[in-house]
Amino acid sequence: MFSTTGAFGGFSVDDIDAARTFYGETLGLDVATNAMGFLELTLGSGAMVLIYSKPNHTPASFTILNFPVDDVEAAVDDLNARGVTTKIYPHELMPSDSKGIVRGNGPDIAWFLDPAGNVLSVLSAR
């Protein structure tokens, strides 16, 4: 019988070691390597996300992982201090402030890239 218990998402990267460093060290997430050599991110909610290496990886053209935060500006400052660039879209495409924060059109949000070019975000949890 179909069940949603234990369901999880996943995405590809072109360099599993770079992903392990970025997600584990730069972002400080709980990262484990499974028996197949894939990465398993365990999020604060308990959800798991699988990251796998793909030789012909093409970065996702959409946001693959969103991190709700209480203060987007503080989260962006923290990410920037860790070396993460949060202004990834030109102003003409996605009007934002100098830090890459889009305000006033839904929740405040800022996007950034992982080393494989996949798009992630921090957005207001309020």
Strand content: 25-35%
Strand arrangement in the largest pleated sheet: 1-4-3-2
The oligomeric state of the chains shown is single chain
Q: What is the chain-wise order of helices and strands?
A: EHEEEEHEEE
Tally of contiguous helical segments:
2
Distance between the termini: 37 Å
Structural class: alpha/beta
Describe this structure in words.
The chain has 126 residues and is α/β, with parallel strands linked by helices. It contains two helices and eight strands; from the N terminus they run βαββββαβββ. The protein is globular and about 45 Å long.
Topology of this structure?
Layout: E1 9-13, H1 16-26, E2 30-33, E3 39-42, E4 48-53, E5 63-69, H2 72-81, E6 101-102, E7 109-113, E8 119-124
Parallel strand pairs: 1-4, 5-8
Antiparallel strand pairs: 2-3, 3-4, 6-7, 7-8
Short key terms for the protein model shown above:
126 residues; alpha/beta; 4-stranded mixed sheet; 2 helices; 31% strand; globular
Task: Summarize the model shown.
Helix content is 17%, strand content 31%. The protein has 126 residues and is an alpha/beta fold.
